[in-house]
Amino acid sequence: MKKNQTTHRMAKVLMLLFAVLFIVLFGRFFYIQATGEVQGVDLNEWAEKKRTNNYSIDAKRGNILDRNGMTLAYDHPTYNMYAIVDPSYSKNVEKDLHVVDKEQTAEQLATVIDMSEEAILKQLNNDKQQDGTQKFQVEFGSAGRNLTTEQKDKVEAMKLPGIQFEKEEIRYYPNGMFASHIIGFAQNDNKGNIEGVMGIEKQMEKALREKDGHIYYQRDNYNMKLLDPKSIITEPEDGMHVQLTLDQKIQTFLEDALSSVDEKYNPKQIMAVVMDPKTGEVLALGNRPSFDPNDRSGIETWYNDIVSYPIEPGSTMKIFTYAAAIDAGVYNGEEAFLSGQYKYTDKDRPVRDHNPGGWGKISYDEGFERSSNVAVSKLLWEKLGPEKFLEYYEAFNLTKKTGIDLPGERTGRLVYNYPSEQVSLAFGQGSTVTPIQLMMAGTAVANEGKMMRPHVISQVQDSETGKPVKEKEPEVVSQPIKASTSKKVLELMERVVTGEYGTGKMYKLDEYTVGGKTGTAQIPNPETGKYMNGHGNYLYSFLGMAPAEDPELMMFVSVTQPELTLDPYVNGATPVAEIFNPVMENSLRYLDIQPDKAKVSSQVLSSKLDDFVGASVKQAAKAIKKSGAQPIILGDGKKVQQMIPAPGTEILKKEKVFLRTSDQVEMPDMTGWSKRDAYQVASLLGLRMEQSGSGYVYKQSIEPGKKAKKGSYIMVELKAPNEYPPKSKPPENNTE
Prior knowledge:
The strands form 10 sheets. Strands 4, 5, 6, 7, 12, 20 and 21 form a 7-stranded mixed β-sheet that branches. A 5-stranded antiparallel β-sheet has the order 14-13-25-24-23, sandwiched between helices. A 3-stranded antiparallel β-sheet has the order 3-10-11. The chain is built from 20 helices and 31 strands. It is of the alpha+beta class. Strand 13 and strand 14 form a beta hairpin. Helix 3 runs antiparallel to helix 4 and helix 9 (248-265) runs antiparallel to helix 18 (573-590). It has 4 domains: 2-50; 57-243, Penicillin-binding protein 2a (Domain 2); 248-461 and 470-590, DD-peptidase/beta-lactamase superfamily (Beta-lactamase); 617-723, Trypsin Inhibitor V, Chain A (2-Layer Sandwich), CATH 3.30.10.20. The longest helix is centred in the N-terminal third of the chain and has 34 residues, at 2-35. It holds the Pfam family PBP_dimer. This is serine-type D-Ala-D-Ala carboxypeptidase. Residues 459-478 are annotated as: Disordered. Belongs to the transpeptidase family.
């Protein structure tokens, strides 16, 4: 009886426990059903995620273009190679999916990638983890990354088991070291995106940045779409194109001249910029040292010196001192003054001309021609007065940033407290300005007194339609001087180049008149706090405009501490002229600016190129030779099918004209050709060209005489003339 009571009691306890458990479980199920959550996880969202596939659709970053639509930066596909070394990956399949014969694989890969057979084999044998377990794959370091499509195709043609590729977009700059401080560069970030780091790539990141698309759809356990997959497609959005005011041909003229002078004189620094003074458009800009944005080799400074590096302008400042005196009505060009030295106060040391003995009594007009420090000092101190001159200095915007659409702009420093500092400013010593500040002020002289804001961005374009989304118009900042003042200053600047006593005779051009002002600025020695001295220890510069009467182009060039010889004596202006003269003259010809000199150079433009498409090859070649150009025949046909440059183009004498005469064309030998000529051939033959190095063609991946297949890649290696071995073909006399 007692046992039954105990049993009944235990049964009741168990029933109570089961009842409580049932209530708890039922309550839990009811809660889950009512709320749809477990431990804060939404079950509907979890299930949706489990049965939904999500794929990314790649978009492209916008291109950077020159003013004529030539591509200066774009996304370029490359391939990273790896080898699957895990034998288990080939189980239950007919075809081997891992590397089977390592020796043969290493031998064949060594013919394509920049890695020795031994190094490749060592990497393939490195197939175990530290704990002894099998690795799934191995990679080949930098030699296996960023491979071209041509390299990938060659490897795939070998049909090597286990060798795989992963596609990756990189930012590519087809012209290498070309306006690199303007364009800048972009690189892959840690999230797989390409991001601007410097220059326009950084400045216009918001416009250039792409937005990847996505595809979402629901699937079953077998990864098959459901009957009602509820697909959602977000279309990719390519970045917008940014078109610059740069002209690829004028920039090429500049780059070639900069490289030549850099190699010849080994200066500490070169800065140069070409502008249209009527619009403020920057047509070309370059610095040395520079770098190739594809690999950033040679990068020494991330700053664009033209906008970021203040300098003492030296005698180029005399343009604005004279302009101020003329505009204020206190200038008489025929008035005489005693040159040599000028004692403006009893306490301060006198100002001296670069010829300390002077030239006796000369006129103020002649003083500008001779670049007299005494002339500008007397104009500032006696005619204008320091306060009035400061008003003009500020009106020329020389104390403020120009507002150019480039990152990192700085402004110079005005030192103008004491009489010695005020007088020194008249001839560009003591205070500093950036080259772009000088150029902006110079537009007022070249453009009838109207000062234009410099800019490098022309427009932002929709990448699909090519239509402008945003355009930049020329902007008149102010008018610091009258049009009549501008005309008088231009006359004085022309005398600097053509006058009997002019300091700028070296800057004469064959076909165009030039107005300009030379500058030889002293360089402070950071160790002593004093100015350096000695042959070559100066910043030599020239601010010039042409044609002198109505300037179409304006250019500033400075060369700092070039290595000059005393025997034979080389003037400091020589390296500056070796940049200014060819760039200015070739650019004016290219822009079809009519010569304003009666004298005609032996390098005049040939007549406009006729349309030879459809004409016989013999007749076309004969006519091209007669015009002074050089015909290059591509193909063995009897009639011209295509031609570059286009009909109607003005070309320089000895410039190449390419004539395609048949569908099947053998690759010409381009050794010694300029990069521009190589690109023109690639364009005409439908090839995709990649280049390395700078200078002239040294090697080409498609050998001369082989058929050039449309759409294929050609790799061109460029070298400077001094890098050519003695037996190789030297560079030709190119016209770029």
